[in-house]
């Protein structure tokens, strides 16, 4: 659990430490939280909060992004893998978690998580765009998680 949290914190800080390429590495912070949550929701929640504490020490600027985007998506998808069996239910759970996190950042905290693309005043077009992105992004992570889970299962059997 602590190793997953350390990996997630390192991947999340890549965006601030390595400008440019780090922004492509940073979304991978979802994977350790997702994997930990797939094995146990309790361990997933603990690694999620441990990652938040590590980010507070390592790079506080990423502290507002992780809990509401990449970390919340990993936690939501990991819990969905434990609860649901249908792929669409897993995708919807992750999409709802990510969409709520982005909307909380954008509309409640007025944090420009989407940059200049969207203003912090409520818009149905922006909300629809966030929902569409969250669904597609969650779908991508569900497919990646299923591939990883199958490989882990094969390694355990062999």
Describe the structure.
This protein is mostly helical and about 160 residues long. It has 7 helices and no strands. Helix 3 (about 30-40) packs parallel to helix 5. The longest helix has about 35 residues, at about 125-155. It is globular, with a radius of gyration of 15 Å. The two termini are about 25 Å apart. The mean pLDDT is about 90.
Short description:
This protein has 158 residues and is mainly α.
Bulk shape:
globular
Measured by DSSP, the beta-strand proportion falls in under 5%
Based on secondary structure, the structural category is mainly alpha
Flag low-confidence runs: none
Average of pLDDT? 91
Q: What count of helical segments does DSSP give?
A: 7
* Overall strand count: 0
Oligomer: single chain
Biggest pleated sheet: none
String of helices and strands:
HHHHHHH
Question: What is the CA-CA span between the terminal residues?
Answer: 24 Å
What portion of residues is helical?
over 70%
Radius of gyration: 15 Å
Walk me through the topology.
Layout (H helix, E strand, L loop, with lengths): L1 H16 L4 H4 L4 H10 L1 H18 L11 H14 L3 H22 L15 H34 L1
Helix pairs in contact: 1-3, 1-4, 3-4, 3-5, 4-5, 5-6, 6-7
Features:
158 residues; 7 helices; 75% helix; globular
